[in-house]
Q: What sequence folds into this?
């Protein structure tokens, strides 16, 4: 009976896509663009639901426990690979509870601030941090997000003391950044690109090792701080025992959706770089991210409260 069900999938039933963060952040923006296209391809509602809390653990664990019938999909956040090192209990196991279907997009972070702040280059920020320990503040969207870990990696590589100001998601953090209540943020490009274009925020560097095609004028942080390389990423994962035929269809259709010119243009306008990988490639990617960040998190002794 499994095969018949899988062939008929999604057989007229709506699909729920869980985003483990509040509306308005990078994860949410990217997911809605892709899900809109999948909804039209599948002829059913592909409904994004925001289940925020515990740095993404609530939403991720929710999908780990869901019925493995293809009707609940997770927008996989980087916390899938980092949270097991940050929390004593997450409520999920990244490799045993999920099938990682497809890596859908890579999103660089960039260093943004209010235009009134005095920093024009990364070197300005490093020198200020070194001469004013404990004075520079950086906003982030939750413990263990790439926005938070970018700040921790900055501290670790520059041996400086800067102060984290945590928020429940990227949108509230941006509000305080726009009001100049915090100094800087390593925000997902997709969340704050519009404010930068409008001149409400100033961006001075990108967190990937190379320049991004979506912000070609921004130098990498690594030009100033060698070894600095962070990007946020999003994929789709499903509960482990989801039938192979359904997994294969979601992977194949995600790839088609991401190569659709209209969807691609919408994603690129937010700063996201569409990928569309195989299940094997995404699983290997998840493992590699866990290895890289596990080391940084342990060495920097970062713990989520």
A:
């Amino acid at each position: 009976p499994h095969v018949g069900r899988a062939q008929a999938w999604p057989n007229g039933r709506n699909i729920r896509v869980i985003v483990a963060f509040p509306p308005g952040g990078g994860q949410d923006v990217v997911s809605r663009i892709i899900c809109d296209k999948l909804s039209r391809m599948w002829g059913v509602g592909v409904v994004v639901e925001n289940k925020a809390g515990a740095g993404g653990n609530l939403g991720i664990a929710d999908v780990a426990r869901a019925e493995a019938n293809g009707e609940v999909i997770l927008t996989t956040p980087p916390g899938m690979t980092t949270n097991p090192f940050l929390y004593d209990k997450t409520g999920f196991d990244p490799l045993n509870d999920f099938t990682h279907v497809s890596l859908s997009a890579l999103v660089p972070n960039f260093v943004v601030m209010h235009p009134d702040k005095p920093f024009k280059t990364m070197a300005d920020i490093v020198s200020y941090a070194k001469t004013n320990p404990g004075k520079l503040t950086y906003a982030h969207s939750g413990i263990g997000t790439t926005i938070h870990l970018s700040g921790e990696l900055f501290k670790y590589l520059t041996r400086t003391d800067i102060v984290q100001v945590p928020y429940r998601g990227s949108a509230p953090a941006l509000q305080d950044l726009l009001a100049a209540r915090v100094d800087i943020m390593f925000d997902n490009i997709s969340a704050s690109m519009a404010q930068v274009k409008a001149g409400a925020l100033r961006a001075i560097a990108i967190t990937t090792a190379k320049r991004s095609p979506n912000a070609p004028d921004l130098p990498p942080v690594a030009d100033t701080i060698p070894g600095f390389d962070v990007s946020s990423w999003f994929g789709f994962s499903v509960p482990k025992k989801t039938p192979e035929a359904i997994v294969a269809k979601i992977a194949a259709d995600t790839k088609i959706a991401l190569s659709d010119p209209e969807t691609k243009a919408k994603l690129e306008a937010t700063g996201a770089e569409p990928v569309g990988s195989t299940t094997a490639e995404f699983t290997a990617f998840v493992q590699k991210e866990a290895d890289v960040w596990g080391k940084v998190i342990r060495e920097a002794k970062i713990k989520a409260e």
Observations:
- The CA atoms of residues 62 and 106 lie 24 Å apart.
